[in-house]
Write a structure and sequence with these properties.
The complex is a heterodimer of chains A (121) and B (372). Chain A has 121 residues and is mainly β. Chain A has no helices and 10 strands. Chain A starts with 5 loop residues before the first strand and ends with a strand. Chain B is 35% helix and 10% strand. In chain B, helix 4 links the parallel strand 2 and strand 3. Classes of the chains: A mainly beta (121), B alpha/beta (372). Bound molecules: FE2/S2 (inorganic) cluster (FES).
């Protein structure tokens, strides 16, 4: 079995929930996120106009409530918002919230012996 | 109650031939008039009958054509006596010559009147008059009616809508193009809820400077009729964007709108403009899960009057991009000065598109029973 390519990110303790570590690999770099204990990696390239996506704030999702015009805040820390024009992406999948068929590239992340790795780069 | 329209039942034919045939079209915008103001007054409650109120002729920006003194009417609609367009039999003859065998009547009202009770009484009088004088007439063209409602008076309008429940001669409700607030605003919500439940579409028509009027353009008053005519139709887009952004179509999936006074030519670039910013402004209006332009097919139609249309040599490309076979319906605007016969609507278009514009789309949208 051939060894899969992987890149060491950091020790798990250095990437607490709600934070991101930037990995300067490839053309744009990759942001590795800890979302409530789960780890995800997103390309630092926004599919809208190419902004450095991982510079954007980690956020939540504004949703309509049950009553007309009611707003609720959901999925806190699960969303990253592009710093340029505000498109929002689900960190876990890279999917854009407002537009189907638009997606930030993502990679699997593994944790082994207390170390965080991005797989495939 | 009326039959509720099912947008999923829409079918488009695949017969790719061009045709000269216009017979059997449905005219979705005919504007019957009163012989004189005295005729309308007969239908008002006694306590309102002597009240002064504006007549339906446009004083500012009167077209420099048609029948004097206020040029609004086409010369061919001229009658021996009475306002052009006030005789049901004569109108039917003209509409038949235009190629139609069915027509939707939308009488102009008096726009928005500051005295909203008076405004509602005028709408009620117009509706009763239309049913008695026009919808009961035996004419060679089959007439369908519109229920005029006063958007300033939500409660009064709901009551008026109920008065016509079950009368399937009425195939739409109608409100003026001018409004104190765009039609997506929450003050109208109860009214649209009642209209959606009735299954009838809402038709918007410019009542033309007959009630309280606002600047014809947001940048002020143009000097000529030509400018007014080119620009005032763009007011429909403020209502359309408002209905989309306020989430009215999401809350009321059965609600449908028809803009009967132009705007189709410029509609698409404006929707593209709104689509463009949509992903960015989602947080403001999360109750709108789809791109603005995606609401058009299910909820919105436009009438060809007035209509510029494409040059013949690009008509196929144009109708594809503009989705004309789904969104556009023929309306003559008879007896107005710019009345247009079905013959002059997209003469070079594919038969399948033309048939939908001249008849198919209207038949589905208004759930009209087939001719017997
Ligand atoms: S570049 Fe990211 S939203 Fe425009």
């Amino acid at each position: 079995m051939s060894e899969q390519k992987r890149t060491f990110v950091c020790h798990v303790d250095d990437l607490p929930p709600g934070t991101m570590k930037f990995l300067p690999v490839g053309k744009q770099g990759i942001g590795v996120y800890n979302v409530k204990g789960d780890f995800y990696a997103l390309s630092n390239y926004c599919p809208h106009r190419g902004a450095p996506l991982c510079l954007g704030p980690v956020s939540g999702e504004v949703r309509p409530g049950d009553e007309p015009y009611e707003l609720t805040w959901e999925r806190d820390q699960e969303i990253v918002r592009c710093p340029w024009h505000g498109w929002e992406f689900e960190i876990a999948t890279g999917n854009a919230l407002a537009l189907k068929n638009h997606k930030a590239r993502s990679w699997p992340v593994t944790v082994e012996d207390g170390s965080v790795y991005v797989e495939g780069v | 109650m009326w039959k509720v329209y099912d947008p999923m039942s829409v079918t488009v034919g695949n017969e790719s031939v061009r045709t000269e045939t216009v017979l059997g079209s449905i005219d979705t915008a005919v504007h019957p008039t009163f012989t004189s103001d005295a005729e309308l007054r007969q239908y008002l409650p006694r306590a309102y009958r002597d009240r002064p109120f504006p007549n339906s002729l446009r004083y500012l920006y009167s077209p420099p054509t048609g029948v004097a003194p206020y040029g609004s009417y086409s010369a061919e609609a001229r009658q021996a006596a009475g306002t052009p367009g006030s005789d049901p039999e004569l109108a039917a003859e003209h509409l038949a010559a235009y190629g139609s065998d069915e027509a939707i009547l939308l009488p102009l009202a008096r726009g928005v009147l500051p005295n909203l009770d008076l405004g509602t009484e005028i709408c009620k009088a117009i509706n009763t008059w239309l049913a008695e004088r026009w919808l009961s007439a035996a004419t060679e063209v089959r007439y369908h009616g519109s229920i005029r409602l006063n958007p300033l008076d939500v409660e009064g309008s709901i009551t008026e809508l109920e008065r016509w429940a079950g009368d399937d001669r009425m195939v739409q409700v109608s409100v003026p193009l001018e409004a104190h607030l765009p039609y997506g605003h929450r003050v109208y919500h109860r009214l649209w809820e009642a209209v959606a439940a009735s299954g009838l579409p809402v038709a918007v028509r410019n009542d033309g400077y007959s009630g309280a009027s606002f600047h014809p353009t947001p940048s002020g008053f143009p000097r000529h009729y030509a400018e007014f005519a080119a620009l005032q139709q763009n007011n429909y887009i403020y209502h359309l964007t408002s209905l989309v952004a306020e989430g009215v179509f999401e809350r009321l999936p059965a609600l449908r709108w028809v803009f009967t006074d132009g705007g189709f030519d410029v509609m698409l670039p404006l929707m593209w403009r709104m689509d463009m910013d949509w992903p960015i402004t989602r947080v403001e209006t999360p109750w709108v899960p789809h791109l603005p332009s995606e609401y058009l097919r299910r909820h919105v139609r436009f009438v060809t009057s007035p209509f510029e249309g494409p040059p013949d040599d690009i008509v196929d490309e144009w109708s594809g991009i503009w989705d004309a076979g789904s969104l556009l319906m023929y309306g003559s605007a008879y007896p107005m000065w710019m009345s247009t016969g079905a013959r002059d609507i997209l003469p070079a278009a594919l038969a399948e598109v033309r048939d939908r514009v001249l008849r198919g789309t209207a038949e589905e949208f208004f759930a009209l029973r087939p001719r017997s």
